[in-house]
């Protein structure tokens, strides 16, 4: 994927994007051996970029889908020494970071990448990426409670959640529990737990099963796979569909 040269320079840690633009205008940057002073020039992974005679090293962009187990932190490191999601990717040269987060005790689908642009876009509220969760909750969920979830519920911070898709998958009268599917596009802290708590059903266990069009198909807890080019393109295209 071709990108503006100043953006590539910034991503490679040469300088900020604005400072990189200044270097280009000053004639300090070469692309494939030729000085370029145009800010609109786009380059891809096959182009050779030099700044002040030095080659810049570009990290390949990588994209992974992880089936995060419970008891793992959605972060690159943890000051308490607990297992983090990036521990699953230490064999790679590229450093990846989680896109958003899942709670420590929540399992399921989590994206990791070193593509900051895509990560920032996906986490922006305008994207409204649908995410489906399956929750085991205390109590037998009633139809009127599902209706409340579908219409949006008042959370403990005083704000009302957006409309959600909600349905009961099963229930166990003996153990007084229900299995509920909830599809939302918001990403507030503890969103699903707080929504179900608001209708009187504390979450006992939670799993994220989908993220947009992506699923956990073929993976078991702790496994991951690399996204295909078509999947990465489709994630980028989500922005175009919202405009």
UniProtKB/TrEMBL annotation:
The keyword RNA-binding applies. InterPro entries: PsdUridine_s_RsuA/RluB/E/F_cat (IPR042092), PsdUridine_synth_cat_dom_sf (IPR020103), PsdUridine_synth_RsuA/RluA (IPR006145), PsdUridine_synth_RsuA/RluB/E/F (IPR000748), PsdUridine_synth_RsuA/RluB_CS (IPR018496), RsuA_PseudoU_synthase (IPR050343), S4_RNA-bd (IPR002942), S4_RNA-bd_sf (IPR036986). Its EC number is 5.4.99.-. Signal peptide: none annotated. GO terms for biological process: enzyme-directed rRNA pseudouridine synthesis. Keywords: Isomerase, RNA-binding. One of its GO terms (molecular function) is RNA binding. GO terms for cellular component: cytosol. It is an enzyme of class 5 (isomerase). Residues 3-61 form the RNA-binding S4 domain. It holds the Pfam family S4. NCBIfam families: pseudouridine synthase. Belongs to the pseudouridine synthase RsuA family. This is Pseudouridine synthase. It comes from Ligilactobacillus apodemi DSM 16634 = JCM 16172.
């Amino acid at each position: 994927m071709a990108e503006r040269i100043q953006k590539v320079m910034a991503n490679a840690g040469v300088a900020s994007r604005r400072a990189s633009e200044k270097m280009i205008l000053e004639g300090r940057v070469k692309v494939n051996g030729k000085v370029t002073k145009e800010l609109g020039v786009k380059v891809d992974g096959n182009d050779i970029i030099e700044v002040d005679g030095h080659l810049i090293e570009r990290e390949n962009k990588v994209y992974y889908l992880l089936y995060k187990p419970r008891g793992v932190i959605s972060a690159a490191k943890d000051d308490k020494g607990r297992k983090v999601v990036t521990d699953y990717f230490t064999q790679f040269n590229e450093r990846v970071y989680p896109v958003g987060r899942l709670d420590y005790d929540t399992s399921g689908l989590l994206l990791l990448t070193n593509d900051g642009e895509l990560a920032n876009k996906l986490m922006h509220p305008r994207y409204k990426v649908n995410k489906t969760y399956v929750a085991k909750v205390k109590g037998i969920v009633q139809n009127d409670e599902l209706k409340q979830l579908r219409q949006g519920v008042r959370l403990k911070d005083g704000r009302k959640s957006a409309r959600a898709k909600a349905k009961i998958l099963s229930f166990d009268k003996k153990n007084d529990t229900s299995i509920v599917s909830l599809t939302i596009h918001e990403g507030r802290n503890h969103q699903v737990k707080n929504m179900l708590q608001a209708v009187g059903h504390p979450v006992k266990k939670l799993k994220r099963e989908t993220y947009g069009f992506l699923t956990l198909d073929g993976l078991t807890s702790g496994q991951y796979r690399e996204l295909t080019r078509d999947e990465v393109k489709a994630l980028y295209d989500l922005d175009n569909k919202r405009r």
